[in-house]
Structure formats: C-alpha cells, structure tokens
Design a protein that fits this description.
Largest sheet: 9 strands, mixed
Helix content: under 10%
Number of strands: 29
Number of helices: 4
Distance between the termini: 64 Å
Oligomer: single chain
Number of domains: 4
Strand order of the largest sheet: 3-4-2-1-7-8-9-6-5
Structural class: mainly beta
Length: 423
C-alpha cells in the first residue's frame, strides 16, 4: 500500500472534469470481506491491489444505493481522522443483527479513489483504519458507521496500571496458563504440534499441522479458529490459546508441556516427567491429579480450559443448557462465568459472547447479551473457562499465580486517605 499514484492517474486529475469514484474495502475479524462503491454500477478491480498488510483487495465492488460518505475530517496534527458513512446497513450482506452481535467490531477498512472508466490507472488512497461508533435509527435498517484512522491507536494508554485485579486476558502471552508459547520466528524448522503466537494476535495461537520451514517474513495470519495459514512449507491452524495441543506420537516432551487427548475428554494433561511419547496414544486416566504413563513420559490430568459443547435445551436467546457440561468434582458453580463462548454451528455461527452464569448441576448457561439469532437444540459451540482476574482465582482455579499480574496487597483508597490516629 503506497500513497503514490500512477502517472496516468495524475494526468487524469489534471483534466477539467474527472471520472473519479470512491470505493470502500471492509474486512471483519472473521476474515469476511466486503467491497462497495458509490458508483451506480458494479466495478471490477484488478491489478493485485493490496492493503498495508499485503491482502489483495481485487474483486467486484458492488454499487450501493443510499450510501452517503461525509468528507474526511483530518488535520496535519496527530488527531484522529474521521469519516461517517450513512445507511451502510442497506448494503448487501451488512445487517443490524450482525452489528449487534459484534461481528463488525474493530473491522478493518480502506477507502480509495479510482477512475471508473479505466481501473488500470490504479488507485489513490484516501484513508484506512478500523470501524468506530455505530449509530442506528430505531425501527429502520439505516444508520451511521464511523470510520476512524489508525491515529486512534495513539490515544491508547501505554504502560501498566496498578490494580488489585490481573489486567491481562486469560491465555495470552503474559498469562501463559498453558505454558509459554513462543512468538513465530523466520526461517525456522517446525514440526507437527509446534505452537506459536503471532506478533499481533494474542487471542489466537497457531499449531503446526504440516511440518516444514517458515518463511523469511511473517505470514498474513488467518485469525478465525480452525482456519489455516500457509507459511512457506509450513501449514498453521488457528487455535484457541486455552485449548491444549493434541497429543503427538513419538515426540519429545518437557516438564510443563500440556496436551489434550485426540478425542476431547474434558481434560488437559500436564507433563510432569519429561520423555518421549509412545508410538500409539495411551489410555488416559481422566481422574483429576491422577497420572498416565506414556512410554517415558508421565502425564497428570487436570480440567480442560477450552470445551466443546452442544445445546441440549433452550430457554431463550441468552439462556440454554448442555447436559454434557456437568462433570462432578471438576466443574464448580460458575466455572464458565466470564468465559468466552464462540458459536460453531447454527444461525449464530461465528458470533462471540461472554458467559454470565453457569450451573454445575444442570449444565445451564446464561450469556450477558442475548444472541441476535434464535438458539436451537443441536447448535454447537466452543467455550473457554472464565476468569474474574482475582488473586485467589489464579491460585485455586488455575494454579498460575506465578504469572499473576495484579497487585492485591497494594493499599486501597481508604488506606491512602487515613490520617494518624484515625480508625
């Protein structure tokens, strides 16, 4: 992506009248792409036009009715450039339900001009960034979507805030609840089962599913879970940071490595004696804290932190149950509270939501926000165990206090305001 324009484009700008039109390229976090133009007919863009991350934006830019972009509000200072797009909800494939579900949160966008009569002249970049505020008109499909430039990142606070609670997300590279996951490295040999994290995406890890040697530069990662990324001769599959890598035969393991059975059994297995695994998968002992011998490796069972479930009964769009989540002696009251649920199948597939309550006796779950589409019996989901970020939870629930990032012993506001002799 470059700000330079072609000589032909520059010549066209010098004409008394021009044939410029505005195009918008949108990419959601799940990888779904949308292309729109304010022109009255569709435009086919070719020429391997790429954005700043190297993603090809060629394709059909659909003509939309009622689109009304404002002028870009920007300055030479470091303030955030803004652009409002009116009635973007009328565009094909963009619905109020998807907006409400959060599918469009932090979606990337690129805006550019092209000459509609000659797209071979290339493009003139106007603005790129992420979606901001969405304002909907009640009772209609219209609304205003704010597009914010990358300078919004300059407004983020950098540094560590002192608080009693842990400030990091469960499973990220500072939490390391499943052990340290190294950052991807260039020109490195990787074996099946090796796991890395990217330089930018913390809520997704990548497991090697085809062995090989990585490229000299970091690939453009496919973020949606279970999708693959080709990296020179290596193939990576996107993984939840709380889901243990499946056990691999004849592999050297060190103490602290964590695996799961190849068939999900609600457990993770922590290597407590280093060695090399057997040529065939062992019969796992699922009793918590019990051990499994695997050639020269010894594994100790613990509750899984990422689960796979299926709806067995439904109350409403925010309340339902999976009877298989009941696991006596492991799943306690509100075991999944604050955990992240991602729908795998059904009308809500791909949508994420946070768990409000979970019932250890019935397997009932309640979400903080009702789903935009009806929840049906048989819908499947991924579920991550929740963390309230308290010191006691890190000690008792996750046994990960060595990575706790909060400051539970710092005096509170009342202690600071006390005067000598006060009670």
């Amino acid at each position: 992506m470059t700000k330079a324009i072609s000589a032909g484009f520059n010549t066209h700008l010098d004409l008394e009248t021009t044939e410029l039109t505005t195009c918008i390229y949108l990419r959601r976090r799940d990888g779904t792409e949308f292309r729109f133009t304010e022109f009255d007919v569709d435009i086919e863009l070719t020429g391997d036009v790429t954005d700043a991350r190297g993603r090809v934006m060629d394709g059909t830019y659909s003509a939309t009715q009622g689109e009304s972009p404002s002028s870009v509000d920007g300055s030479g200072a470091l303030s955030v450039d803004n652009l409002d797009i009116l009635t973007v909800l009328d565009s094909p494939g963009i619905t109020e339900a998807d907006m409400s579900a959060g599918l469009w949160d932090y979606a990337d966008f690129n805006i550019f001009h092209l000459v509609h009569s000659d797209v071979s002249l290339g493009v003139m970049w106007l603005m790129s960034g992420k979606l901001g505020e969405v304002r909907m008109t009640r009772g209609t499909d219209s609304g205003v979507v704010e597009l914010r430039s990358k300078s919004v990142l300059l407004q983020e606070r950098i540094g560590t805030l002192v608080s009693h609670e842990c400030p990091v997300d469960l499973g990220d590279h500072k939490c390391n609840v499943l052990g340290i996951v190294p950052e991807w490295a260039a020109s490195t040999a990787y074996a099946v089962g090796d796991r890395v994290r990217s330089s930018v995406a913390d809520r997704v890890h990548f497991v090697c599913t085809t062995a090989g040697t990585s490229d000299s530069s970091e690939p453009i990662w496919s973020i949606p879970l279970d999708t693959t990324t080709t990296d020179n001769t290596v193939t990576w599959t996107a993984y939840s940071p709380l889901k243990a890598t499946e056990w691999t035969a004849s592999r050297a393991y060190v103490a602290g490595d964590v695996v799961s059975a190849t068939t999900f059994d609600k457990r993770r297995y922590v290597c407590t004696t280093a060695g090399t695994s057997d040529s065939s998968e062992p019969t796992w002992t699922t009793t918590i804290d019990a051990t499994t011998a695997d050639n020269t490796v010894v594994w100790t069972a613990a509750p899984a932190l990422a689960w796979e479930g299926e709806v067995t009964s439904v109350t409403d769009r925010a309340s339902f149950a999976d009877s298989a989540l009941v696991d006596s002696g492991v799943v306690t009251a509100d075991w999944f509270k604050y955990g992240l649920m991602t729908w795998m199948t059904g009308d809500n597939a791909g949508i994420e939501s946070e768990v409000k309550t979970s019932n250890a006796t019935t397997g009932a779950l309640t979400l903080w926000k009702a789903m935009p589409y009806t929840v049906e019996t048989g819908d499947t989901f991924r579920l991550e165990v929740g963390c309230d970020k308290a010191h006691a939870t890190c000690v008792d629930k996750f046994e990960n206090v060595v990575n706790f990032r909060g400051f539970p012993w710092v005096p509170g506001r009342d202690a600071v305001l006390q005067t000598p002799g006060s009670r």
